[in-house]
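User: I'm curious whether this sequence folds into something compact or stays loose and floppy. Could you predict its structure so I can see for myself?
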Amino acid sequence: MANPTGQEMREAVTIVAERMGYGKLYERLVQMNAFVSRKRPPTPAILADRLYNLSGGLRRQVAATIAFHTVWAESIGRTITEDHEKALEVIADRINATLTPDEQQIQPDKTAELETALTEYEQVMVELVGPHAARLDMILKAVTPVADLLRAKPLTEAAAAPAADPA
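Assistant: Here's the prediction. I'll summarize afterward.
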């Protein structure tokens, strides 16, 4: 799995705070033993930096890492229906098929297939959770070379509502 950058972590914590409320997010993290201190940081960005440092950028298997992944999955998972989940799984299988057997590299002849599958996956996610949350969710789930590819792509915006027929 790829590890988020500090900025990506700040964006992810901000998204969760916007969805569930900052106070509720902090209390949930404390409840899951992500922190020893009960003193709440003044902003989601500072909270994100604290989580990032405690978890080693989400690389270490500690309470802070588990707590972050739990609140992220709860926040994002609320909007994904069973039908969407099945569709995303099919696309994820196509993405995984483009990786080498050890899942550490992209097969050289499969780059176009990977980019197509990533675009499809992101379009589904954007419609469900918005462009920033979709991209961050994909990065958090991706192996490093796929995350690097995602970081290089521009964000996919939500599809515009169809224009009203003037006739």
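Summary: Residues 111-129 form the longest helix (19 residues). Residues 160-167 have pLDDT under 50 and may be disordered.
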